[in-house]
Specification:
Chain lengths: ~375, ~300
Amino acid sequence: MTNYRRYLYGAHGKTIEMKKNIREIVLPLIAIIAAFIAGGIIVFAVGDNPFEVYDLLISSAVSWPDGIGYTLFYATPLIFTGLAVAVAFKCGLLNIGAEGQLTVGAFAAAWAGITLAGLPAWLLVPTACLAAILAGALWGAVPGMLKARFGSHEVINTIMMNFIAAGVVAYLTQYHYKLPGDAILQTAPIGEGAHIPRLHSLLVPLGINFPERLPLNVGFILALLACAVIYLLLWKTRWGYEIRAVGSNSSAAEYGGINVPRRVVLAMAISGALAGMVGINEVLGHRFRYYDGFSAGYGFTGIAVALLGRNHPIGVLLAGILFGALTRGGLFVDIFTDNVSKDLVAVLQGIIILFVACEALFDPTPYIRRFMSGRNPVGAPGRGQ
Amino acid sequence: MSRTLIISLLASTIRLATPLLLAALGGLYSERAGVINIALEGIMLAGAFTAATITYFSHSPWIGLSAAIISGALVALIHGVACIRFRADQVVSGTAINILFLGIPALLCGALFDTTSGTPQLPRSETLPDWNIPVLQSIPGLNQILSGHKPVVYFALILVVATYFVLYRTRFGLRLRAVGEHPEAADTAGVSVVRMRYWGVLISGMLAGLAGAYLSIGQNSVFTRNMTGGRGFIALAALIFGKWHPVGALAACLLFGFADAVQIRMQGVVDIPNQFVQLIPYVLTMVVLAGFMGRANPPKALGAPYSKG
């Protein structure tokens, strides 16, 4: 009898587990499909053919080499901000401040590139990267500290920090780092030594014919590395464990001896640092200066990327590439259709977040449980409940 | 500080506080019922856009105003369904709506007006009129502060009193509060938690939509992208600062409105760069949140989805 029970519970438990893993993948897929359907309706409503629009969107994003090149290039900042939001989520925090964090990170990278332009490349590049990371970390840590010390909600504080970042950086750019007479709000160019190479220079020696005109650069490699590092951090280190514990159940974590306020600040600092790394891709790898307004809402899109990627580095990577593809396709759609603008992409993102958030909508567990308990005479107390 | 300066600052304060107050009161209804409404910003944008667009086509600001209120309710309904029926995380759902309404108005502007930066300018005659209150307008000094505002302003001020009355002196208000404090007890007593929460969310949508309409066709005569500039979030901070009480919310919104009025007046006049001056309201919000959050008591069941049994 005991063997029979163990067999049933074991199988039942494993099935619930398998269902949960499948759900982690299926749920985002359903959300994407639902969003595309809803988006298609909107496209139809503004007067264009949804099939044509989607065809243009997808084909312009996956062509070689331009489509893939640009898709991955647009994906790079989204992977950084997606990781940023995901790490915060793992600690139970909602970081809406990635926009401000990436702004200060980018400016810091530019500042280092300008002020220390005399340094040789092997020193200047890491220094500028570090500047971006530290600036972002600081910008994330401040709301983290306010939450830890005063309990004030990080959502509002991070949003306020976004505005403050925009103002402070705009001021510094306009009055201290702009070239005199330059009409555009951007800083002077950074020193040559701070440039990081485009992937053209890395792939051509390997025999891959990747044109130089494509802006995909080493920043993308850094984004891939960041995914790996964050995976190791969250699941293979003590800090990561504690961050996740606080996110799971902060009272239980506290009872277990974890310093909750410190982990909150740590999580927000790491989150901000990741967002700041967007500056590396943008300033050191692309424009070679700080350009006011360079971010096309990367911080907010990062929220969608994190949610869609279920707060896991691999998911974030895939979701980031998807959104990069949407951005690339969106630009084409903007130019080549009559009525649809690239804001369609923002609309798709918002719908995706909504659908992913409505977990109960797609949750098959109640149905499975009913099915299982009908078949299983012993029932399944506790597991999967 | 001259007398005229003070008077004009106070008058500006009331004008600038009005959208905050409407949004904050909207947030009050929703949060008192237990549903966090971060989407106030997005709903305000939706209301602002709807008001400007409908007024453009109908040539009547009143029709535009009504349309904005309806659109606010509809957007809030999305949030409500996601949070109440599907038990989505309320902050995430609110954020999703905010992102959606960064994009939807621009998309529709592009389709309707061939530009994504905003709606076409409305002639002054098609924006909300100024109302001169008969007795108040003859008092020297006070007349600038209290008279000559748009009707929405007076509505907002009356709404503070009305909300106090509704919330604390009517059965509806009692049920609303009960559902936000202890939904299980309310449910046991026969109150429909779901229905009260929907009411709270819908009212918050209507008020936030109205707030947005005031921005586009009251204070200005056009809708521009992202014209709310964080006001929805500042309204939430004001609500928290005001301890989820209508009079507290009024005081907080007046404070933030004053900060905004000062900031506008200071630009170009004081030696501090404009970019820093503009940050005053945002820094103030953070300071306020840090200082008062510890003592604030949100409705106990705020943010927790309710499931029967």
